């Protein structure tokens, strides 16, 4: 018999579906607690916190590289001198260009771009070398985006790299080159396809529609199994384009498919974007349990507070321009993030146990944008000096500092300072009852020892005690720098001060 809760959930979902709304996850605050758990048949297939080797490795990555590459790289967000800005959602969405600026018969032009795709300058080894120099420990690479064009010679469609003048398998070159550099590879895969005649956004309703969409589902399954077979080194899939009702309603199929992929490839990592439960709940099921191995909703945003994450694994994927993941020829007139912005975001993420994944959009010839080259170099230079504070670190368990971000590894505490105090005193607040406190401090970049002393300021009702680290007045920095502290047992007790009686 169907329970009351389940019935209510079903009615609510039906209401949402009728109203044409997608039931989406919540990314802008602490997650609302589910008041009463209900029976969910299509919930998570893996534990909330996997402890196998692959997942433990995922937790050490710190920095990743995303690459969006496909036919959209040819126009680079413009066509015959006309910009697609304001006409298309983002550079890799240029096929959807509409409005007064859109070229005539644009979709058709776009769908034929594959006939020109011949990136003679593409060298996967160069990309991988650059990624390594930048400090990326994993790559997420677009095997096919929403246009459906496959960068590998898939047997299941004619719309692939094999049909282009370039012909060669790009996915293979990328997987091999990055793996050879010791960088783990995850494959981005868009479920939705704009120009596949079997795809539809709405849930199929007639027998004909159902037959068509079933073909699409089988095609998706075949392609995914093909990718696993062709590129067995990969560590995971990064799914996208899973928000349409057709996919949402296919929960029985997607559940079985996830199971099959995991069985075929032990250790495979899949984020929370792949599928939903039978009530249409995406990322988290109706009980609030995560559907996948890590939270995959932090796109161009980060949690404000560590507590929001409730211990879950996560990654943050970030563009350099405000939005736009594919190649954008013209970076003028928009804000493009600086290496200071990006290092700040990186440290913010790792301080909350997340990975930061920076996106690159190479051009139609296979070259990175010069602006991306510059940023990769600057980030790499910084990480070479400060990587100890980035990789394999965990949340430090201290209250956030106004000066920067804490990370921790064993008995080392790191503070990456972005806001240098004018008095040169880096003050660390530690709870009074803490079993470990800073006992030594150095500048990570050169090992220079820094003076450190406890400062019992005596603020009324204060639960903290303070450790003051003095930066040499002669020390100058034009980028964030790291203060590395050794943690040890506190020497002596903090002063017992009477709280004010008011
Ligand atoms: O629509 C895509 C977009 O083009 C891009 O690929 C990003 C990357 O996370 N994902 C989708 C939007 O969420």
UniProtKB/TrEMBL annotation:
Residues 40-388 form the Glycoside hydrolase family 29 N-terminal domain. Pfam families: Alpha_L_fucos. Gene3D superfamilies: Glycosidases, Golgi alpha-mannosidase II. GO terms for molecular function: alpha-L-fucosidase activity. InterPro entries: FUC_metazoa-typ, GH, Glyco_hydro_29, Glyco_hydro_29_N, Glyco_hydro_b. The keyword Translocase does not apply. The keyword Transmembrane does not apply. Belongs to the glycosyl hydrolase 29 family. This is alpha-L-fucosidase. The lineage of its organism: Bacteria, Pseudomonadati, Bacteroidota, Sphingobacteriia, Sphingobacteriales.
